[in-house]
Amino acid sequence: MAMDKAIEKKKASVPRWVVIGAGAAFALVVGWQVLSRTSSSRLSVDSSRVTTAVVKRGVFLEYYPFDGTVEPATSVYLDVDEGGRVDEILVEGGAHVEKGDLILRFSNATLQRNAISTH
């Protein structure tokens, strides 16, 4: 009695061929995309517009040469009922202030005299 048994070779299944075909199609599409873009993505620059310099350590200064006007996001104009003289400025221009902050002291001698004479 023989112990050996003949093993049948399996045939390739349909799903396996579908996966292989899809992989090959994907590889073709990617290869076509790479090859079609390499020739059209070159940039030609006039050599007179290119500058070179020696690289060295130092402070990096970058600026943009343009003219413009800087304006605050919001502006508040203060009006007073009576005029007077500014005695002391408590907050400089551009500083952040909250509602109720004291920003300056001013005096009006005429108003003070009228207040004293009416009492």
**% residues in beta strands:** 5-15%
Percent of residues in helices = 25-40%
Describe the strand arrangement of the main beta sheet, using strand numbers.
Answer: 1-2
Main structural class: alpha+beta
Anisotropy-based shape: elongated
Q: Summarize the biggest pleated sheet.
A: 2 strands, antiparallel
The helix tally amounts to 2
What is the string of helix and strand elements?
HEEH
Radius of gyration, whole Å: 42 Å
Q: Which stretches are low in confidence, meaning pLDDT under 50 for 5 or more residues running? A: none
Distance between the termini: 137 Å
Mean pLDDT: 82
What does this structure look like?
The structure is a single chain. The protein has a domain at 85-118. 29% of the residues lie in helices and 8% in strands. It contains two helices and two strands; from the N terminus they run H-E-E-H. It has helices at 14-38, 109-118, and strands at 85-89, 104-107. The termini are far apart.
